[in-house]
Amino acid sequence: MKHSTNPQTRRGQGPARRVGRTLALVLPVLLVLSGTLAVTRVNWTGSPSGSVLTASDAIDDAKGAAPVHRAPQDVLRDQLLAELQDRNPGVVLTHLQEAVNGRPSLAGHCYSIARALGRAAARMYGPVRAQSYARPVCDTSFATGIAAAQG
C-alpha cells in the first residue's frame, strides 16, 4: 500500500489547518489585548458625569497635576469627618441633616456618609459612647457604621 504524496490529502498539511493553527495562537492574544484596553476606559470614579479615569490620569494626579473635580457627597463626607475631630458626633450628625435638607441631591448619599461617621465615631469614642450620640439621620446608618466598626 502506497501513501499519497498529495499535501492536501495528508493530515495536518493543508492550508485550512495552517489557518486554524494561526488563529489558535493569535485569537487569545487579541482577546486579552481588547479586554485590557476596555478595562482602561471604564469609569472607575463612580461619578455619572461621563468622565473616565485612566491609569495615566492616576499617575498625573500622583505627580501633583491639577486636582480632579470631586463629587459633592465626597466633599461633604470629608468635611464632616474632619469636623468629627473637633466636635461630638451629635453635632456632626445635625450638620449632615442640615446639608441634606439644604441640598436634596445629597439624600441618596446620606446613608453612606452617616455610616462612615458611625465607623469613625466608634474608633474615636468606643462603640457604647458613640451610640449615645445616635440621631435619626438617614435611618439607622450611623448605628450601622458603629456596628460595622466592631466586627
Topology:
Elements: H1 15-40, H2 55-62, H3 72-83, H4 89-102, H5 110-125, H6 127-131, H7 141-150
Briefly note the structural class of the backbone.
Answer: mainly alpha
Number of strands: 0
Low-confidence stretches: none
Arithmetic mean pLDDT = 76
The H/E string reads HHHHHHH
Largest sheet: none
**Overall 3D shape:** elongated
In short:
The protein contains seven helices and no strands.
Describe the protein in words.
By secondary structure, the chain is an all-alpha fold. The protein contains seven helices and no strands. α3 packs parallel to α5, α4 packs antiparallel against α5 and α5 packs across α7. The longest helix has 26 residues. The radius of gyration is 29 Å and the shape is elongated. It starts with 14 loop residues before the first helix and ends with a helix.
Key attributes of the depicted protein:
single chain, 151 residues, mainly alpha, 7 helices, elongated
